[in-house]
């Protein structure tokens, strides 16, 4: 069994599809299927971690094709670099334009923003001061200068600058966080906690109230001030309200510093997904427990939490800037670096993503997530062998982790290594995993290597666990229909799959193709036309529509679709089949016995 109805699940997938939530464990509680990672939506222009990546864009496509000797050339080059998502190159060109047009306020604004997004905080701060001297207000304008003050532990300046950035309505919450921790850093604890909670009230959600991370930071402030009893009082019941694993880990770290290892172990074992190495996390928390983090780390953590909490209301550029802000004041912030690396990878900056990930130690809290992300980035680059080797190293470090064996099975399956994927999935089962996704993936692998009885058992188990599993429904339904078994149930399964994912051209194609194979081209043609609309670049779906057109007597349209499918296909065997059809038509052996005489079909020649 092959074709788009299965390829969509067994071998395909972009970076975003690969892991069903590449870093899901960071943002989700443990147990069951991984939840999607909550990351920054609406991609900003690409954000290199340290150096310009202009080499990633062909010279003919970037600003270098312009006459960059002139100011106008630099400006055009900057705009085009932004279009091609290279903020580093764009930032350079905007600065060069500014050298010739130093009094241009629009250029000053753009140069400031690109420097901030690119991560050159010091230069962005200088440009921000220049804009301020001209009485020009720009979004995020005071943030780089505030970051400089925090990094220098100049808390008096940070307080003044926090008030300044509060004048930008979009930065009120950020200003409150900075003001609160700056007050705590100078010993004014009550005022600091009040400022923090006031910022929390500005961030109140109508459904959930004040975000729980403000309560967490109020407790951390009390701890920092030596108010142990108050800190412990403030975290009562908080564990159940915190959702992101990064927040739970901050709570676990507080418990570790209080020598409350029972709470630490509970959080690790029940709230962290299998994408974390629980043993490594415990050891890292033990190492960290002897030191109270400074206000720099606390502000950085709070800013990242705020950025994620406001992700639906902020632009991707603003969130990227906040990640840069956090890393500037706390270069060792592994979570911020991990999010930034994921963002780079999502938008094509693979080498920069890998460089950022390499700075996250394997024995740290986020080390295993970093290594898993590396494997996914390398796979997306097309180096499956290296990606598998990286993933095997992760499995060797955490061999009792069922989710890692399942992930290993997934990468083998995506690259048609079905025996290896079967073995990895069986290892996950042996370690106690019993999820619908695991049974579905194992069933697919078993079917592909001819172990059909076992495959059917696991696909049925997947549907039993999750009756809405569109992939399992489609796969098993098409399989049965293709073999002429359990036809009523098979069609019902595929219809359920389509109802779950009506915009999947692969599933709609399955339903249309099954009707065609059962001798009902009249019903099939509508589904297949819809499938080609949903997946216009898939050669097999397009070829299926050509086959149905041929049986309906619409021969010219059939040849058009076959010719189009041939132009889309890169598979030699498929190309030969399509070429034969173009020359000889659909072979009689592949024309199902019709339920309705072709002569009665509307539209036939």
In short:
This protein has 605 residues and is an all-alpha fold.
Describe the structure.
There is one protein chain. The chain has 605 residues and is mainly α. It has a domain at 470-605: Tetratricopeptide repeat domain (Serine Threonine Protein Phosphatase 5, Tetratricopeptide repeat, Alpha Horseshoe), CATH 1.25.40. Helices cover 66% and strands 0% of the residues. It has 33 helices and no strands. It has helices at residues 4-10, 15-18, 24-27, 71-83, 87-100, 105-118, 121-133, 143-151, 155-165, 172-185, 189-202, 212-224, 228-234, 245-257, 261-271, 278-288, 295-309, 316-329, 334-346, 350-358, 367-380, 384-397, 402-414, 418-430, 436-448, 452-465, 470-482, 487-500, 505-517, 521-534, 539-551, 555-568, 572-584. α4 runs antiparallel to α5 (87-100). The longest helix is centred in the middle third of the chain and has 15 residues, at 295-309. The protein is elongated and about 85 Å long. Residues 1-5, 11-85 and 598-605 have low confidence and may be disordered.
Radius of gyration: 28 Å
Strand content: under 5%
The CATH homologous superfamily of the domain at 470-605: Tetratricopeptide repeat domain
CATH uppermost class of the domain at 470-605: Mainly Alpha
**Average pLDDT metric:** 82
Tell me the span between the first and last alpha carbons.
32 Å
What is the makeup of the main sheet? none
Q: Indicate the structural class.
A: mainly alpha
Low-confidence stretches: 1-5, 11-85, 598-605
CATH topology group of the domain at 470-605? Serine Threonine Protein Phosphatase 5, Tetratricopeptide repeat
Query: How many DSSP E strands?
Result: 0
How many helix segments? 33
Instruction: Specify the helix fraction band.
Output: 55-70%
CATH architecture of the domain at 470-605: Alpha Horseshoe
| Inertia-based shape | elongated
